[in-house]
Amino acid sequence: MNIGIIVFPGSNCDRDVRWATEGCLGIPTKFLWHETTDLDGYDAIVIPGGFSYGDYLRCGAIARFAPVLNSLVSFVDKGGKVLGICNGFQILTELGLLEGALTRNKNLHFICDRANLSVESTKSSWMKNCKKNNSISLPIAHGEGRYQCSTEVLKKLQDDDSIALRYADNPNGSIHDIAGITNKEGNVLGMMPHPERACDEALGNIDGKSILSSLLS
Amino acid sequence: MSLFKARVFVHLRPSVLDPAGEATRAATKRLGIDGVTQLRIGKSIELEIEALNKEDARAKIELMSDQLLANPVIEDWTLEFKNEQKALKN
Q1: What is the pLDDT of residues A19-53, one digit of tens each?
Q2: Residue A184 is part of a domain; what is its CATH number?
Q3: CATH numbers and ranges of domains, chain B
Q4: Which residues are within 8 A (CB) of A120 and not within 5 positions of it... i.e. 6 or more apart?
Q5: Chain B nearest CA to A189, separation (Å)
Q6: Which domain holds residue A9?
Q7: Which H or E run contains A68?
Q8: Would you please indicate which residues of A are annotated as catalytic (active-site) residues?
Q9: Confidence grade of residue B89 (pLDDT, cut at 50, 70, 90)
Q10: pLDDT top residue among A1 and B14
Q11: Distance from C-alpha of A138 to C-alpha of A130, rounded to nearest angstrom
Q12: Cβ neighbours of B68 in A, within 8 Å
């Protein structure tokens, strides 16, 4: 069991994810520099939060061309598990592995808060330790987290049971309160909240453990 | 090869809320200007590109606009060439 964390210039949650997966859960975890192309031997890849390449132009727009992401597309095609958190979610939508886009928060603020969420779908293997309609609370920290998609895509997400997480009190104006989605197959999960910041008892919240620990069982 | 100057204007699709544009519109009232009913913010990207001819330049800029400069899920773009081409030596 091995987890790889992709590190871009500007990633800033990479070490938090490693503390959660390796420090709190005991899963061997390695950093993968964005120029790497070899993803062999990893059971799951995490794209962490931050500001990849400064997020110039649009969030995730430049990161999408990183060499490691070509390999990530084949990794996903072969059924590999990928979790994109915050900036990682933005990158996955820019890359086209997930539908829709993340846009500027409705109130224009960078929101750093704790969000109450409901688990809408447990289709993704990342969510298998959660129960449908469970309420969890996770930290959020983003300026561009307003999920947007066309009505056709929204219908598709609903039909495919691809809406993984919803906000209880929509903080950013996301369509249908969407906080996280999966791809059709369920092996790719993108979410704005930060499960890695809620895995250590010392931080007062371990709701994120249920998501990240799914790799252990 | 010739050098072409062009401008790509990237703007949010009409269906996508532009909260920054709304905030700016609200400021026009504070300035004392009434009657601004719409204000939306886009990005203007000015570039110079070497290409065989205008069609070649257009094809390259269209490709980069679709795949890099704009995200077609939320944005549209328009292209205008700024001036006549300048022939490059050798």
Answers
A1: 999 999 999 999 999 999 999 999 999 999 999 99
A2: 3.40.50.880
A3: 2-83 (3.30.1280.10)
A4: A132, A133, A163, A164, A165, A166
A5: 19
A6: 3-215
A7: helix A67-77
A8: 86, 194, 196
A9: low
A10: B14
A11: 14
A12: 57, 61, 65
